[in-house]
Amino acid sequence: MHEDVERCVRAVRSKDARFDGWFFTAVLTTRIYCRPSCPVVPPKVANMRFYPSAAAAQQAGFRACKRCRPDASPGSPLWNHRADSVAKAMRLIADGVVDREGVPGLAARLGYSVRQVERLLLAELGAGPLALARAQRAQTARLLIETTALPMAEVAPAAGFASVRAFNETVREVFALSPTDLRTRRRPAPDTPGVLSLRLPFRAPLRPDNLFGHLAATGVPGVEEWRDGAYRRTLRLPHGHGVVSLTPQDDHVACKLALSDLRDLSIAISRCRRMLDLDADPVAVDEQLRSDPLLAPVVDAGPGRRVPGTVDAAEFAVRAVLGQQVSTAAARTHAARLVRAVGEPVTDHGLTHLFPTPEALASVDPAALAMPQARKTAFRALVEALADGSLDLGVGADWDKARADLLALPGFGPWTVEVIAMRALGDPDAFLPTDLGIRIAAQALGLPGTPAALVRRAQAWRPWRAYAVQYLWATGDHAVNRLPA
């Protein structure tokens, strides 16, 4: 979008927050870059330059605006709804792959050479993988500086910097302030020692009912809970574990994070954003779905629905198998038994375990599972494929290959594969035409009642059929559609 100058100028002049994260505006006279909705008086058009990423603006020598904080914009929705190599690279960078494995590790996961990856990212984002990872580290550093009392010598490695010198130089270049000066803007310390309090922005509107209702209603006891108006759960992270509390607010999601290792901060934030689908563009999604006159009234009744995701794709896939042809309560019971048997204990008020790893689940005797033999076989095949790496459901996974690999497992049909594609892989076009709730909703709205006919009708909803699923499910009277009391 950054190449469409007229459209960008209109967005800046109207201070349209819907475009925050889509592009960044740099001002030649001040050497500052902003988000489109920055409240300051827009500069002259001749002095504007537009960049596709914060990293590209930083690399061109511009510093972040202190007023609108463009580095804290919602992420571009492109990286979550596209399945190409650039989108996979962006999801992997957000998940900390460059910091942990370097650019060669990123390239290996994508199946390209380092030079090819750099060329792809430079062409589309105006910055290479190192610059993109550096921008992410700068944002993490700012969060730690402003929301904690940690000494700078501890903030630097926690934010992913190899040295305090690199940390100091980056903060000065990006924010035009020293780390000490940023610290003077520090917010009041959180009520609970060791807990980071953050705001997760999103593009309005956001309908929290089905999003948080789904997570709460299907939550696994010991791993997830709804308490005091917040969804809470444990997190398994690269350097340790964490507990997150997420509370929907009018213009953001309040996030409280307790981490055993602060190096996991940016990764935890990225995974929570993906779980809540906060980088989605609801205006574009709803506009497309409203084009169907039978679906339009449902969209208008509750615009801004998101697709509930997950912080752990392997965990969700296992839970999808446990939930085959049983009630939500039964699925939660099966999962809770596995958690108590082979999950890792954690210490927290109300939460007791991390969800088991595939390796731990592979050690479970299927005979001990209280479910039909076909589902035991499916469970065993899934956890073994996840444990030996033959099945990849990670953020950089190839969606088509993952679908094919899942379908090849015993006990996996289209419904199970598509629900995993929708909520674990994050495919916005995943569709469940055989789902009973979808078929009942479709018939009630006058949409085709048979799966084949519904698939034909849903061609007009692409590439947002997963969102159509949320709107159709929302017509039913089920706990997943309501915020808990």
TrEMBL record:
Which GO molecular function annotations are given, in alphabetical order? alkylated DNA binding; DNA-3-methyladenine glycosylase activity; DNA-7-methylguanine glycosylase activity; DNA-binding transcription factor activity; methyltransferase activity; sequence-specific DNA binding; zinc ion binding
Query: What's its catalytic activity?
Result: Hydrolysis of alkylated DNA, releasing 3-methyladenine, 3-methylguanine, 7-methylguanine and 7-methyladenine
Q: Top EC class per UniProt?
A: hydrolase
- Which SMART domains does this UniProt record tie to the protein? AlkA_N (SM01009), ENDO3c (SM00478), HTH_ARAC (SM00342)
**Database matches in Pfam families:** Ada_Zn_binding, AlkA_N, HTH_18
Task: Show the GO cellular component annotation of the record.
Answer: cytoplasm; protein-DNA complex
**Which metal ions or organic cofactors does this protein require, according to UniProt?**
Zn(2+)
Q: Which residues form the HTH araC/xylS-type domain?
A: 87-185
Answer yes or no on keyword Flavoprotein: no
| CDD domains in UniProt | ENDO3c
Q: Which UniProt keywords apply?
A: Activator, DNA damage, DNA repair, DNA-binding, Metal-binding, Methyltransferase, Transcription, Transcription regulation, Transferase, Zinc
Q: Name one GO biological process term.
A: methylation
Q: What is its EC number?
A: 3.2.2.21
Q: Which PROSITE patterns match?
A: HTH_ARAC_FAMILY_2
Protein known as: DNA-3-methyladenine glycosylase II
Provenance organism: Saccharothrix saharensis
